[in-house]
Amino acid sequence: MECRDATVSYLSWALLVAGVAYLQRQMGSHTPYGRYVPAEGRCCPARAAWFMQEVPAFLVPLLLLLLTEPGRSGHGTGRTLLLCTFMLHYFHRSFIYAYLTKGRPVPLPIVLYAAIFCSLNGFLQGHHLLHCAQFEDTWLTEAHVAAGFLLFVVGMIINIHSDWILRSLRKPGETVYRIPHGGMFEFVSGANFLGEIVEWSGFAVVAWSLPAFAFMFFTACSIGPRACQHHRDYQQRFEDYPRTRKALIPFIL
Q1: How much is the CA Rg of the chain, to the nearest whole Å?
Q2: Cβ burial 93-111 (10 Å sphere, 16+ → b, else e)
Q3: What is this structure's pTM?
Q4: What 3 state SS string does the chain have?
Q5: Parallel, antiparallel or unpaired: strands 106-107 and 43-44
Q6: Burial of 38 (0-12, 13-18, 19+ CB in 10 A)
Q7: What angle do CA 86, 88, 93 make, to 5 degrees?
Q8: What angle is formed at CA 54 by the lines to CA 51 and CA 55, rounded to 5 degrees?
Q9: What is the pLDDT of residues 80-139, one digit of tens each?
């Protein structure tokens, strides 16, 4: 699928460059987020933070979809299905995960940066799918489409199940850390991060476009190192932490 829209190209390459820069920045340092957030400074309650920073990635594509005339843009089953797949993740993150989370307060700058990113990425993916992407009539029968959707579903299941395991580790009011067990946590410390990376890898396989690949690459660069940070933190906190468990990729990393 070729796109000649300059805005899409610029934003996609910006995501790729930002992914590399973010990866370099995180090497050897902790992201001030979650368990690494400092006690001082202005922070936003976890539920409000997750809602505010994630909901733009749901609302912006929805607005684009509602304002786009199907007859003029020619968007059909393929692009609408892909856009709804993208929005499904952020609907869950904004309205379900945000309501259920028991996380720590999030620094306001992090919330602001995440909201800006989600707004721009929501526009990028939505605009590309609705106004640039072209799909053949046989698109839904192609092997990479089925494989990509399967990856997306598997990744989302891993992500949601891992989040549930993490929430179950604490009783209301507790702030202690415990070793997560079950699901993909038997293999990696960052099972929730692994699930999200698999999700967007599947999305990129289905879309087979520069914007989707750029988003997947940025996601891996931004949350992959966080899984490694968590892995080191678990090993330092718990003497009995499973030694065979990897950080992000089962049996490898």
Answers
A1: 19
A2: bbeebbeebbbebbbeebb
A3: 0.89
A4: CCCCCHHHHHHHHHHHHHHHHHHHHHCCCCCCCHHHCCCCCCEECHHHHHHHHHCHHHHHHHHHHHHCCHHHHCCCHHHHHHHHHHHHHHHHHHHHHHHHCCCCCEEHHHHHHHHHHHHHHHHHHHHHHHHHCCCCCCHHHCHHHHHHHHHHHHHHHHHHHHHHHHHHCCCCCCCCCCCCCCHHHHCECCHHHHHHHHHHHHHHHHHCCHHHHHHHHHHHHHHHHHHHHHHHHHHHHCCCCCCCCECCCCCCC
A5: antiparallel
A6: exposed
A7: 105
A8: 75
A9: 889 999 999 999 999 999 999 887 888 899 899 999 999 999 999 999 998 888 887 778
Give the CA distances from residue 94 to residues 18, 55, 115, 149, in Å, rounded to whole numbers and listed in that order.
24, 5, 11, 22
Residue carrying the six token digits 């749901």: 58
36 burial type by CB count under 10 A (0-12 exposed, 13-18 middle, 19+ buried):
middle
For residue 58, give the amino acid letter: F
Cβ-contact 202, 148 below 8 angstroms: yes
229 CA to centre of own chain: 17
Amino acid at 107: P
Say how far apart CA 138 and CA 132 lie, in whole Å: 18
* Structural contact between residues 185 and 162, judged by C-beta atoms closer than 8 angstroms: yes
Q: Which two tokens stand for residue 220?
A: 């891996």
pLDDT digits 0-9 by tens, 217-249: 999 999 999 999 999 999 999 989 999 999 999
